[in-house]
Each structure stands twice: as structure tokens, then as C-alpha cells.
């Protein structure tokens, strides 16, 4: 252990503990990698964060677990890709905006065909929403 490490450990051991609120953590540690080293780390880490991967490699099973993300990872990347592809290829938001403008100005003719088209569009938007929720690991019909 270097002198700097011992000094840091002494300071951290004698630092006052916060009375309430979130605990204070030591400052982050920075390390520089060559482009090749970083590419190797990125290839080996898979879907893990780089910091979690490095911590796991350094400490193995002794690594202190971190808090889980509030918004969990994508459960079904393929389904998410399909939904985002459909949304990206559509003009859904622009078309919905045009419909809303026509309704507000009173220039949307309400015929049985128009009503059927709007109901079908609503069903398609609902199906996209359900696919997106499933891809994110949420149950359709549950809260936000």
C-alpha cells in the first residue's frame, strides 16, 4: 500500500460521519486506459457498466453490491427494437398533432369511416404501448 493510500485511509477513518441523510462516499478514483485497453474492457464487460465490471474484476465476490437502478434494464431488447423501429418509421406524432389541430378548429369531418380509422389508430397506439411496456419488463395495464 502506498503512502498516499495510507493517508487516504487514515483521513477516511477519522472523517466525521454524517448525522442524517445520505452517507458520504469517498471521492471517485480516476484511471486512464489506452484506446486498446478500453476497447478490450468494453468487449469483455458485455451489458454490465464499466465500473461494475472493473469492481468485479478487482474484488471478485468481495465486491460490495451497489444499489439497483430504479429503472431496471431492458427485459426484451428485441421487442424494444421492434417498437422503436415502428415508431421511428411512422409519422405518428405529426399525424396525431394534425388530428388534434383539426378537431380543435372544427375542420375534421366526422364520418363513420373517420371514426373507424380513429378507433383503429387508437388500438394500434395501445398495442405499441403494451409492446413497449413488456420490453421494459412492466405489465401492461399496471401503473406508470
Automatic annotation (TrEMBL):
Region (Disordered): 1-26
Protein name (record): Mobilisation protein (MobC)
The organism's place on the tree of life at top rank: Bacteria
Amino acid at each position: 500500500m502506498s503512502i498516499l493510500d495510507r493517508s487516504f485511509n487514515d483521513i477516511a477513518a477519522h472523517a466525521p460521519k454524517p448525522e442524517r441523510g445520505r452517507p458520504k462516499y469517498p471521492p471517485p478514483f480516476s484511471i486512464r486506459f489506452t484506446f486498446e485497453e478500453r476497447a478490450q474492457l468494453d468487449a469483455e464487460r458485455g451489458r454490465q457498466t464499466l465500473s461494475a465490471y472493473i469492481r468485479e474484476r478487482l474484488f471478485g465476490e468481495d465486491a460490495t453490491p451497489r444499489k439497483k437502478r430504479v429503472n431496471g434494464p431492458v427485459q426484451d431488447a428485441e421487442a424494444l427494437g421492434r417498437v422503436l423501429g415502428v415508431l421511428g418509421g411512422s409519422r405518428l406524432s405529426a399525424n396525431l398533432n394534425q388530428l388534434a389541430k383539426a378537431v380543435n378548429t372544427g375542420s375534421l369531418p366526422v364520418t363513420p369511416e373517420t371514426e373507424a380509422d380513429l378507433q383503429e389508430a387508437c388500438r394500434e397506439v395501445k398495442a405499441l404501448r403494451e409492446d413497449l411496456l413488456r420490453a421494459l419488463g412492466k405489465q401492461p395495464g399496471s401503473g406508470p
